[in-house]
Amino acid sequence: MAIIVFAVGWTYFITRMPQEKFNETIWVNDIQERNKMIKDLLESDYLIGQKSSHIKAVFGKPEAVNHEEGVLTYTLIGHTALDWKIISLKLFMKDSIVKKFTYDTRIAH
Question: How many Å is the Cα radius of gyration of the chain?
């Protein structure tokens, strides 16, 4: 029984992404720490209401821009001890302000 508890605990530990509260200054200045803030960023309302100019200052140039639909797409990279997670973040803009966002996560092989 102890072995099962240990195995489950160990699996949880090595498969979860580290987590810290999103901090804009650290995000911009320390690329190594970004991985730890992704979950909080996606679960918070930080992005909602931000101007596109501010988003670009914090996250850089988007990977894709759909001007017709007002969508900026960014790729975020997260990792656990076992794998890399690729997060496709889509920001839906209206009048240059983020109104909503969606994201998809996939495991990098």
Answer: 16
Positive or negative, the CA dihedral 26, 39, 19, 44 is positive
Helix (H) or strand (E) holding 94: strand 84-94
Q: What is the residue range of 43's domain?
A: 2-108
Residues 98 and 76: their CA atoms lie apart, in Å, by 17
pTM exceeds cut of 0.90: no
pLDDT tens profile 19-64:
789 999 999 999 888 888 998 999 999 999 999 999 999 999 999 9
For the chain, how many structural domains are there in total? 1
- Torsion sign, CA atoms 41, 46, 48, 50: negative
Contact 71, 99 (CB under 8 A): no
Do 40 and 22 touch, CB atoms closer than 8 A? yes
Beta bridge partners of 77: 86
